[in-house]
Amino acid sequence: MASLEKPDIGTTTVRWRWPSVHPEGYKFAAIAAVITLVFFLFVAEWLGWIGVIITIWILAFFRDPIRTTPRDARMIVAPADGLVTMIATVAPPRELIGEGALTADPVMRVSIFMSVFDVHINRSPIAGSISRVVYISGKFLSADLDKASEENERQHILVEGKDGLKIGFTQIAGMVARRIVPFVKPGDIIAAGQRVGLIRFGSRVDVYLPAGTSPSVLLGQRTIAGETVLGVVGRDERIEGIAQ
Fold first, then answer.
1. Phi first, then psi: what are they for 53, rounded to 5°?
2. Which residues form the active site (predicted)?
3. What is the Cα 182 distance to its own chain's centre?
């Protein structure tokens, strides 16, 4: 009798590695390094050491770690690292509503707040094509306020999967953030978890789940961009948890 072989899943190991720095951060680190050198040479040594700390922090802010994204067309992954600060039923932004886009019916919105210590590279929640990118100038209120969704500088992105699934999400600048940097444009084909942009120095990302899909995350939970599953399409089961 022929024997059934088990899949060999234990032969590969993964080692920790230093995350790379996104090129967008090099110019800021270079400026900080030059100022730091000036402090050391011409001003005061203690200011120079402060400059060293700031330079290292800038490099850490623009870190771009490798992420492992689950391959399942039903899964919607987090576009941002950060803290889940709001989960609410709201209508999508009008910029994401219309023919070939989202409907005006209320859906679940998951808001992820990124502090200045989080990775700020944003990733696509699903695989598909970029059908809309809409930038809107605005204020720079604290990104953890609900009204920041409508008043702050922001950029809406709509992704459409091969099966017609449409997921909209919004990059929102905060009090410290002053620029949203896009990596994609309408018509681009992207994979789930692929890098789509970054927001400089503190911000928030709102994700609009499709109708009939409940969040798979909880308030106060931390997400990892490209890895944490925010929801499974069609799964309308609310989960409960406890902070501890």
1. -60, -45
2. 203 (schiff-base intermediate with substrate)
3. 12
Which has more pLDDT, 26 or 238? 26
Q: Both 84 and 153 in a single domain? A: yes
Domain assignment of residue 191, given as a range: 75-232
Q: Are residues 31 and 134 in the same domain?
A: no
% residues pLDDT > 90 (the chain): 69
* Nearest alpha carbon to residue 95 among 154, 181, 173: 154
Task: For residues 38 and 136, state if they share a domain.
Answer: no
Largest CA distance in the chain: 83
Taking the CA atoms of the chain, what radius of gyration do you get in angstroms?
20
Catalytic residue among 124, 149, 203, 216: 203
Same domain, 79 and 113: yes
Report d(CA 210, CA 190) in Å as an integer: 19
Question: Quick one: which of 102, 101, 112 has its CA closest to 77?
Answer: 112
Cα(39)–Cα(45) distance, integer angstroms: 7
Q: What is the pTM of this model?
A: 0.88
> How far is residue 180's CA from residue 9's CA, in Å, rounded to a whole number?
40
